[in-house]
Specification:
Elements (H helix, E strand, L loop, with lengths): L8 H35 L3 H29 L1 H21 L3 H29 L2 H31 L4 H5 L1 H15 L14 H19 L6 H23 L13 H31 L4 H7 L1 H21 L2 H17 L9 H29 L6 H26 L10 H29 L30
Helix pairs in contact: 1-2, 1-4, 1-5, 1-7, 1-10, 2-3, 2-4, 2-8, 2-15, 3-4, 3-7, 4-5, 5-11, 5-12, 8-9, 8-15, 10-14, 10-15, 10-16, 12-14, 13-14, 13-16, 14-15
Length: 484
């Protein structure tokens, strides 16, 4: 049984190591959007290249995050975590020196692989290292400090882009890794599940990632209307069907189909897909809208979004506690409606938009909506499965959210009629943004309707989240396996 106490020097080193590692991935998931206009201008990139700059990372992270957690269980959690940190830092260095958009996109895909190793690995280290009496508090601190990293991300990204340059958004990860790795090797105990002998579902992971990649390519390049795009879309659908068939027949699938026998689990994942699709499109386009149309600097654009994550950090724990008393149906119905209202308020953000009267009201309503829904969402996911499958359920929900954001970033510019050079013209981008926000709001209204119709109060005594505070806007908090 793990016996490291949180108050001990070793416990503090373990917590520092895991926070540093996970913060690298959390920072990159929020800072890059702010840097996109400068990246586009410096590298001569089209809008589709900017979409791929975001989506290449999301693609490999969403496709491999379930596999990444199981690798640590088999080969050693510290070993896989350190490998993920080193991999992520090396890919970040490649991003920082990339001379072309193509190399940057490839490096971002490599970053996502590192993120898929270190993100679940950091949580697994806490679960495996700390004494059971301290584990919940350690996970809560890990989640809270990670949320602070996510909140600071847009501000830090804006400062770096406006000052040293956008390349430092990526290069910043290198010194973080140089600090994290030696501490992990010196102070974090190694652990693994010696009884784990199941085969890795590599085929399932490859098919899932391939389906996402092909469908994403087809959506981003659909403006061309070429035969290649059509064939890619068909191949993506075929890969998705093959993925489902493989998961149904493998003895140890990455995504066990029987977990969806729970109607509650299926319903809350449908809500997740809708909610995080809208969030992904919103944060991608809003960072561009504030700079391209409203004329904000990168620092101003990054700072403008801080209230959303600040509200989540301050009130997510209270929201979760309230949802335990009222049940999840009400917050999961009201929360998306508040976020939809925020996106409609963003229609006020045009040329020379005033922050206090035009931007801040929408950002505050957005934060209130996310506070209302994210904690109950995670709690309902965990409550809908057996205790032994809590970590798996959380991983599936986290991957679903990232996949939804990936598809939204690919599809929304197409649906809103954005051309390849739209972000270079304030008037063209503003018009497309005004078409995109109602689409995002509509998806959120659908999420609200699904929650109202399908989500029910969980049974008493079900699994409760350990991550009470969080500030990530790209995915719900990740919960680990319950260990004794």
């Amino acid at each position: 049984m793990p016996d490291v106490r949180l108050a001990s020097p070793q416990g503090k080193w373990i917590l520092l190591t895991t926070v540093l590692g996970s913060s690298m991935a959390l920072l990159d998931s929020t800072v890059v959007n702010v840097a996109l206009p400068r990246i586009g201008h410096d590298l001569g990139a089209s809008l589709s290249a900017l979409q791929w700059t975001v989506n290449a990372y999301m693609l490999t992270l969403a496709g491999l995050i379930l596999l990444g957690g199981s690798l640590g269980d088999r080969y050693g959690r510290r070993k896989i975590f350190v490998l993920g940190v080193v991999w992520f830092a090396a890919a970040s260095l490649l991003c920082g020196v990339a001379p072309t958009a193509g190399i940057l996109i490839a490096a971002r895909a490599l970053q996502g692989i590192g993120g898929a190793l270190l993100t679940p690995g950091s949580l697994a280290l806490i679960q495996a290292s700390f004494h059971p009496d301290d584990r919940g508090r350690a996970v809560g601190l890990w989640s809270g400090f990670g949320g602070i990293g996510a909140a600071v991300g847009p501000f830090l990204g804006g400062w770096l882009v406006a000052g040293p340059g956008w390349r430092w958004v990526f290069l910043l990860n290198v010194p973080l890794a140089l600090l994290c790795v030696p501490v992990a090797l010196r102070h974090v105990p190694e652990s693994k599940d010696d009884g784990t002998h199941a085969r890795f579902d590599v085929l399932g992971a490859v098919l899932g990632a391939l389906a996402l990649a092909l469908l994403t390519y087809a959506l981003i390049e659909a403006r061309s209307g070429s035969l290649v795009v059509a064939l890619t879309a068909v191949a993506g659908l075929a890969a998705a069907v093959a993925f489902v068939q493989v998961e149904r027949h493998r003895p140890d699938p990455m995504l066990p189909p029987d977990i969806f026998a729970s109607r509650q689990f299926t319903a809350v994942n449908l809500v997740t897909l809708c909610v995080y699709a809208a969030f992904g499109g919103f944060f991608f386009l809003t960072a561009l809208q504030l700079q391209v149309v409203a004329g904000y600097s990168p620092l101003q654009a990054g700072t403008a979004l801080l209230p959303t994550t600040a509200l989540m950090l301050l009130f997510s724990a209270r929201s979760g506690a309230l949802a335990e008393r009222t049940g999840p149906r009400l917050p999961l119905t009201v929360g998306p409606l508040l976020c939809a209202a925020a996106m409609l308020l963003m229609l006020r953000v045009g040329p020379h938009a005033d922050y206090l009267t035009d931007v801040l009201p929408a950002v505050l309503v957005m934060g209130a909506g996310m506070v209302t829904l994210v904690a109950p969402l995670t709690a309902t996911v965990l409550a809908s499965v057996d205790t032994a499958r809590a970590g798996l359920a959380s991983g599936i929900n986290n991957a679903a959210a990232r996949a939804a954001g990936l598809i939204a970033v690919a599809a929304l510019p197409l649906l809103a009629g954005m051309g390849p050079e739209a972000y270079r013209s304030a008037s063209a981008f503003d018009a497309a943004f005004d078409r995109a926000m109602p689409l995002c709001a509509g998806v959120l209204v659908l999420a609200s309707a699904l929650a109202f119709a399908l989500v029910r109060r969980p049974a008493p005594g079900c699994v409760r989240p350990q991550c009470k505070r969080h500030g990530s806007v790209t995915a719900p908090p990740l919960e680990g396996e319950r260990r004794e």
